[in-house]
């Protein structure tokens, strides 16, 4: 296994204040002292074809009540924040079975889907929406600084961004964490990572659930 010795530049905040964090049988992980992102060394990033092969093994069926309950963990806290001005939604990274769109439509939202592999709806990347959902997606970002920029630019001023991903606790818990074992999971977020993102954007942020974060773009926001 190739060993990286010099500090890596954080792929989210571009800080050079990073350090080696953990190594398992498959990969080496680094930690950013600035934004607290944990990330794999670049050599472990899979190709799109390799990722697609793994994603197609997932059995996510819109008719599966268990899967709907899983996604409801993002929808329920979102519903508490919705007002009459929130009409349009984008499910960013919808995957091969866009179930979340069904749940969002049940809230009265008009929904578009986008996924680089399974729903490459390029016009959606030119629009802005009142609500953007991103469930079990941000941990797959190969270029998180650029990917987060693309994601957040889809949100209208006054809009809501809902992110679902499991969050890092500490190095000891990380060493035993099943979530890191998926080879398509390459970025891992701490509570403070989301605080960094919200502060850098000038947005508000709520840790709505152990795996769910809701970020709100200010109504009078010229964009960053």
Estimate nothing, just give the exact number of structural domains. 1
- Using the alpha-carbon principal axes, give the shape: globular
Structural class: alpha/beta
Summarize the main sheet: 6 strands, mixed
Number of helices: 6
Mean pLDDT: 95
The fraction of residues in strands falls at: 25-35%
* CATH topology descriptor: Rossmann fold
The helix fraction, in percent, is 25-40%
Description:
By secondary structure, this protein is of the alpha/beta class. The chain has a single domain, classed as Rossmann fold. Helices cover 25% and strands 26% of the residues. Strands 5-4-6-7-11-10 form a six-stranded mixed sheet, sandwiched between helices. Strands 1-2-3-9-8 form a five-stranded mixed sheet. It is globular.
Features:
single chain, 224 residues, alpha/beta, Rossmann fold, six-stranded mixed sheet, five-stranded mixed sheet, 6 helices, 25% helix, 26% strand, globular
